[in-house]
Design brief:
- The chain has five helices and 18 strands.
- By secondary structure, it is α+β, with helices and mostly antiparallel strands.
- The protein has one domain (10-275): 2,3-Dihydroxybiphenyl 1,2-Dioxygenase, domain 1, CATH 3.10.180.10.
- It has helices at 21-31, 83-95, 148-152, 178-187, 242-252; strands spanning 10-17, 35-39, 43-47, 53-58, 72-80, 101-104, 108-114, 120-126, 134-135, 138-139, 167-174, 191-196, 200-204, 212-215, 231-239, 255-257, 260-264, 270-275.
- This is Glyoxalase.
- Residues 10-126, 167-277 form the VOC domain.
- It comes from Jeotgalibacillus malaysiensis.
Length: 277
């Protein structure tokens, strides 16, 4: 079973405000390896497989720099199919002198970087689910140093573009209140699978290690950013069927829009609810 197809509910597309659309498209295509799916003067959709939109870049009127100490995006996470794919992109990013952070989370191996507007990006590969350690319905995750030598020892070729099987693995959000966020996301069908004290919470469907991360690292009660600020506009959740979608929409008071149902969490993070097309 994959955790990014039915019966799971999962993140598919993330929409971001940027301050310079041309610069961002260049970064996400040449450095990260996306392909352009569609574009106009104000927004560009990016894809890995040529069909599925994974990232939308929007330059709003009066675009302003990313605001600090607010709710919104901590990072979105690009899930690569294999360890070899992770090795290839490490070499590619190093060749372009991109500053990286890295961690071994036991369930996954991950890189961290930022786009030109300071939007956080994770690029990771999952370990096999049989390797994950569970105890009392919580999965064990750590922040250990990544063994670059071991990763680079995996069989791999030269990086050109993101593999076609690349997914939007998860999203991690700054929120104003963990308790309010947990209550809200339970209504969307998500269950807690890992807690970091009173600071962060990880939630998922179908026992994934997390489809959504939530934290209060920008401060309890942090305000929402302005609509023109670089950062998260909304993200899309894909539900397995119309019944699950309708239940989530009714539980949260989502409003029907042309593309599906739209709702904001208690911290004003926008969410588009859909079924797979």
């Amino acid at each position: 079973m994959t955790f990014h197809s039915p019966p799971a509910t999962f993140v598919e597309e993330v929409a971001l405000n940027v301050t310079d659309l041309e610069r961002s498209v260049q970064f996400y295509t040449q450095i990260i390896g996306f392909k352009v799916l569609s574009e106009n003067k104000k927004e560009v959709q990016l894809t890995a497989d040529g069909q599925t939109p994974l990232l939308k870049l929007i330059q709003p009127e009066g675009a302003s720099p990313k605001q600090p100490r607010t709710t919104g995006l901590y990072h979105f996470a690009i899930l690569l199919p294999t360890r070899g794919d992770l090795a290839a992109i490490i070499e590619h990013l190093a060749a372009h002198k991109i500053q990286l952070g890295a961690s071994d989370h036991l369930v996954s191996e991950a890189l961290y970087l930022s786009d030109p507007d300071g939007n956080g990006i994770e690029i990771y590969r999952d370990r096999e689910k049989e390797e994950w350690e569970w105890s009392r319905n919580e999965v064990k995750m750590t922040v250990d140093p990544l063994d670059f030598e071991a990763v680079l020892g995996a069989d791999h070729g030269q990086f050109n573009q993101l593999p076609e099987d690349t997914k939007m693995g998860h999203i991690h959000l700054h929120v104003a209140s963990l308790s309010e966020a947990e209550a809200f996301y339970r209504k969307l069908g998500f269950e807690p699978v890992c807690r970091y004290g009173q600071q962060a919470l990880f939630i998922s469907t179908e026992k994934y290690h997390h489809h959504i991360g939530l934290n209060i690292w920008n401060g309890a009660g942090a305000p929402a950013p302005s609509e023109e600020s670089a950062g998260l506009v909304h993200y899309t959740l894909i539900y397995p069927d119309e019944a699950a979608l309708k239940a989530a929409a009714e539980q949260t008071g989502a409003k029907q829009v042309e593309a599906g149902w739209f709702v904001q969490d208690p911290s004003k993070n926008g969410i588009l609810l859909k079924t797979a097309s």
